[in-house]
Amino acid sequence: MKFHSYTARLALWYALLFSASTLLLFYFFYLFTASHMIQQAEKTIQAEIRGLAERYDRNGLRGLVATITNRVGRQQAQASGNAVYLLTTRAFRPLAGNLDRWPAAGESADGWIEFDLVADRESGETHLARAKVFQLQRGRYRLLVGLDIHQLTEAKRRIVQALGWGLAIMLLLAFPGGLILGRRSARKIERINQTARSIISGDLSRRVPLSKRQDDFDQVAHNLNQMLDRIQRLMEDIRRVSDGVAHDLRTPLARLRQRLEEARAREAPDSESARSLEDAIKEADSLLSTFNALLRIARIEARQTAPGGEVDLRALVADVAEFYEPLAEEKQQRIAVAPGQDGGIAVRGDRDLLFQALANILENALRYAPRGGAIEISLHRSGAVACIAVADNGPGIPEGERENVFRRFHRLDQSRGSGGNGLGLSLVAAVVAMHDGEIALQSNHPGLRALITLPLGEKMTEAGPAEAPQKMPAAA
Description:
Layout: H1 6-78, E1 83-89, E2 94-97, E3 112-120, E4 125-136, E5 141-148, H2 150-200, H3 216-266, H4 272-301, E6 310-312, H5 313-330, E7 334-338, E8 346-348, H6 351-368, E9 374-382, E10 385-392, H7 424-434, E11 438-443, E12 448-455
Helix pairs in contact: 1-2, 3-4, 4-7, 5-6, 6-7
């Protein structure tokens, strides 16, 4: 379990809040218990004081001394009791009681005093005593009456110890409890993540599952599903419009091209009209190519093209390099193929589409590499993926533009005057995404390196019948 995960944070917060609330409850319980025990001890002392005061009022100082001496003697004879007595003169000379001398501890404003009492002279064990001080005959005599509160102190210590163990147990129980609650919430979040990943991969029909509890997560899932329904409808409307426009315009364009061909055939080959008609035919071909590219990208993104069976990437790379070898020779360029380790590297997919994607990348490299430049195509296996890299020593693409070139019709300023329609790399991205792969553009120092990664041995998503491959102009 990762400690930065939602489950771990929720468990930690649950443990802290639960422990803090338990500690606060225990603290008030301790204060109430300790205060109650102190009050009971003080009531006992007050009762003892009232009894001695009555005896002093009736019999005077002699009666008070006799009473204290009698009670101390009876307590010692029975080896029980925890009462503390001491009657002294103003100079603290003891007259009666079970203390040898007046305690050194100071008195509080209301006359209460706490001091250490020697409980066992042989072992030197001391107990805490609490007493109250009175003055008799206008300060001529001083009387101290109290209790040995060792049992009360020991009880408070045991309460604190019990509270400590209870807090430790609460911590041990709170963290697993938080984990259980966190995992339940994390499972609901993971269902949303799984749906989002499926939608990102192209399955717009996926929705977040709902439970019967209709809790807050279900409300969020319901709102997300409504949003996804709306997005899917909008995407389908856009796809239908683009497909309809492409279909509706492709037929009249084809007719226009045919009529231009017929008109050119009627003109003299070297006439100005024939050259103008030839330029018009080229523009019509470019428009037809653009519409065909849009339709092809739309079908790939809609998963209407079947991925097919097993594709040997070594043979595919060799075929693409061989196909473009004549074009490279015209520009005095060299295509080098690094097939990687021995043995084939196979993926499941549509060979024609993968061929088209790799061809578009290689054509871009040939177009922008300088005359006499070098283009390298490398293939290797890295874990569970196959990696195809096409590197050139051309001008490359600025880092800030490397993601934009995969957008439809996006072209760099330096390529505005060259051929192409800005759809080649869009088709490459659609083909790679359909095969559950990734494409990245990197710097080749100098030049550009296009890296395609495809999963090995994984069955691609099934779709409709394959469309015949069609050559596409590469994008800038």
